[in-house]
Design a protein that fits this description.
- Helix 8 packs across helix 9 and helix 8 packs across helix 10.
- This protein is about 30% helix and about 20% strand.
- It is α+β, with helices and mostly antiparallel strands and about 300 residues long.
- The protein has 11 helices and 12 strands.
């Protein structure tokens, strides 16, 4: 018994609608297209979003709800992998759908948040810089919602560039992968490591903006060695820089911060041993050592179970 997705699917490349696969060949992950109508299943009797709430008077059961056309953003981002679009290497293409995410204007966000958005510090938001040249705004793909469209629809769309180079556009795949791969960490880790660290990073940004920028720039990601992700008893903190050693003041801030974490956990009576920090350069760290770590991306990023 096949999937309903297979019902009616072309049985060869030649059976696909004329011109569709050829039209898809130029498309890549990260291309920008016009936003389709967005529909999701909601529960208007217990609404979470304004869209669901707008149906509350007319529905008392879970139903498909459509985003109001007045709220619909102008663009969407293609999030499916490039090789899944035209399926050029497949004798018989078997993937009729492409995923897109809405692109919204966050130019009314707080100035501090705007800076973080432009630096892609919000894990589910991806800044698309070139769109502001087409229409003024702070244009951001919201990866909290991805929507399937048939490839025949995508084949009819105009393509826009969101980044100047292919290398810059690779951030799309990285951002989508982070949404799927980011680890779930135990509550003791979140309460005694990540939340205090975020709080102190926020205090640093308010009091010493220049140093905060250096901390963000020189330590773009961090990692931990843990005996258990969900029930850790021992955590070794590893700070990762790219191709140069972090400056003395950045290293000192992290050393003081990890010492504060130890004191915080001890005062709270948590059965958690915190070790480090250890500073490593990604251009020197052996792959075998990196694989022992649980990579945590940016210290600002959230975990899958937060």
């Amino acid at each position: 018994m096949g999937s309903f997705v297979d019902d009616g699917m072309p049985t060869s490349r030649e059976d696909w609608p004329a011109g569709v696969l050829e039209a898809l060949e130029p498309f890549t992950q990260g291309d920008v297209v016009g936003c389709p109508d967005l529909v999701f299943h909601g529960a208007p009797f217990a609404p979470i979003t304004r869209t669901s709430r707008s149906y509350a008077e007319d529905a008392d059961t879970a139903i498909p709800v459509m985003v109001d056309p007045d709220d619909l953003p102008p663009w969407a981002l293609v999030t499916s992998g490039t090789c899944d679009l035209a399926e050029a290497d497949a004798p018989v293409p078997r993937k009729p759908f492409v995923q897109v995410a809405p692109i919204v204007d966050l130019s009314d966000a707080h100035p501090g948040d705007q800076k973080l958005i432009k630096s892609n510090r919000f894990g589910y938001l991806l800044h698309i810089p070139l769109l502001s040249d087409i229409r003024p705004g702070l244009w951001v793909a919201d990866l909290r919602i991805e929507y399937p469209v048939e490839k025949s629809w995508l084949a009819t769309q105009s393509r826009y560039r969101g980044w100047a180079t292919e290398r810059e556009q690779m951030i799309v795949g990285q951002a989508v992968a982070r949404q799927r791969q980011r680890p779930a960490m135990g509550r003791v880790f979140i309460e005694h490591v990540i939340l205090p660290t975020r709080g102190w990073l926020g205090e640093l940004r308010k009091g010493q903006r220049e140093l905060a920028d250096k901390v963000d720039r020189e330590i773009p990601e961090w990692a931990v060695e843990v005996d258990s992700r969900l029930d850790p008893k021992r955590v070794a903190i590893v700070l990762l820089s790219q191709d140069c050693d972090p400056s003395d003041d950045v290293q000192q801030w992290w050393r003081e911060t990890v010492e504060r974490l130890r004191e915080h956990a001890s005062t709270a009576g948590a059965s958690l041993t915190i070790i480090g920090p250890r500073f490593e350069r990604l251009d020197r760290l052996p792959v075998s050592e990196y694989r022992k770590l649980t990579a945590l991306d940016s210290p600002h990023s959230k975990f899958s179970n937060e």
